[in-house]
Amino acid sequence: MRLLLVADTFPPATISGALQMRDLAAALVQAGHRPLVLVPDSSLRRSWVREEMAGIEVCRVRAPRTKDVSYLRRVAAEIVLPWVLRRGFRAASLDQESWDGIAWYSPTIFLGPLVAWFKRKHRCRSYLILRDLFPDWAVDAGVLRRGGPAHRLFKAVERLQYRQADVIGVQTPANVPIVAADAPAGASLEVLHNWLAAPPAVPGGGRHPVLDGFERHKVFVYAGNMGVAQDLDAFLDLASRLRDRPDIAFLLIGRGSEQARLGKEVVTRELGNLRIADQVSQRELSTLLAHCYAGIIALHPAHGTHNIPGKLLTYLQAGLPVLARVNPGNDLHQMVMDEGLGASVMGGSSDALLEATLSLADRPEACAAMGERGKIVAARLFSPAAAAEQVVKGLSPR
């Protein structure tokens, strides 16, 4: 099948969405399909460029920046994104080809108009890979007011996106009824687990410089987006309560709207046992994780939606146990506990988070066993090949 994959991020970016789309495209190629990834790129000097990356066709289109900018600039850039991508797609003469299906990754929620145009022109099926239930999580986190003008606008955009999908793949069973409430009657919803290819072996990987000074510490690492949805202040509070434990340290690594503020908080509160660093390449991250003790999952406890962050897969593949702080009822909590992958806390209790952290820090042998189980679970449940097969099935003519 000749398939179009659309996302708002792709390598060399190292956030989970970029890596997932790379691995999905690679799995589709391996299965004999011909995917092309359409992605915006604010760094381009030309209006568009076609390239091949590790056997994957990519069309990058110059577009306004949507990452690490103010909320207003991001919304404006994402509103125009479908038309910017459509223009680049046509300029690259891709609309003259014959296409068998389109799959797109959300977030962003603004690609509905692009998908609608593509389906009309090419008369094919569509698959929405839904990873983030915005704007619901923003209301839960207090970023948006339910029923306010912005919330109503974003809900309308969300519903428009749902109407373009022949199949919607959500992360967890708990999200099915939430999405069904906003999707068209009779919409086809299914659970599409996250996926991530195993990272290549890194020979002779020494300690990453960001860990300097933490050589004798059990480092709990968070690698991912630093935004409101993660509520990372809870881990600053945790580090403050663990000042008297010289063997425990925290590393928050990544990018996002809260990174600068959190960095200032670390300095103000003189948290010598917590460090914030910019995101690194995937190769560097693999080296770094090899010298960490446990991986942190952080989801705002006020969320009413559910997800299994892509960083979970990164930790499992690295053989790290998981320290998860998630919203009540999140399927991730039960997975961590049932599979023996680490410790998980539901809700905002700082005492429970402290207890969970110490339960891992004080049991290194148990943590090593959890890490080994994690590798097995990652291979069993989160295969890119399985995700590709499921997406192709959803796109196949009925």
The helical percent reads 25-40%
CATH superfamily of the largest domain: Glycogen Phosphorylase B
State the order of secondary-structure elements, H for helix, E for strand: EHEEEHEHEHHEHEEHEHEHEHEHEHHH
How does the major sheet shape up? 8 strands, mixed
Q: What strand order characterises the main sheet?
A: 3-4-2-1-5-6-7-8
| Tally of contiguous helical segments | 14
Q: What is the CA–CA distance across the termini? A: 14 Å
As a percent range, the share of strand residues is 15-25%
Rg, nearest Å: 21 Å
Work out the number of β strands: 14
Overall average residue pLDDT: 92
Structure, described:
The chain has 398 residues and is of the alpha/beta class. It has 2 domains: 2-195 and 383-395, Rossmann fold (3-Layer(aba) Sandwich), CATH 3.40.50.2000; 209-381, Rossmann fold. The protein contains 14 helices and 14 strands. It has helices at residues 16-30, 71-91, 112-122, 136-140, 149-163, 175-180, 233-241, 259-268, 282-289, 310-317, 331-339, 350-361, 364-381, 384-395, and strands at residues 2-6, 34-41, 48-53, 56-62, 101-106, 125-130, 167-170, 188-191, 218-225, 248-255, 274-278, 294-298, 322-326, 342-346. The strands form 2 sheets. Strands 3-4-2-1-5-6-7-8 form an 8-stranded mixed beta sheet. Strands 11-10-9-12-13-14 form a 6-stranded parallel beta sheet, with helices on both faces. Helix 10 (310-317) links the parallel strand 12 (294-298) and strand 13. Helix 1 packs across helix 14 (384-395). The radius of gyration is 21 Å and the shape is globular. The two termini are 14 Å apart.
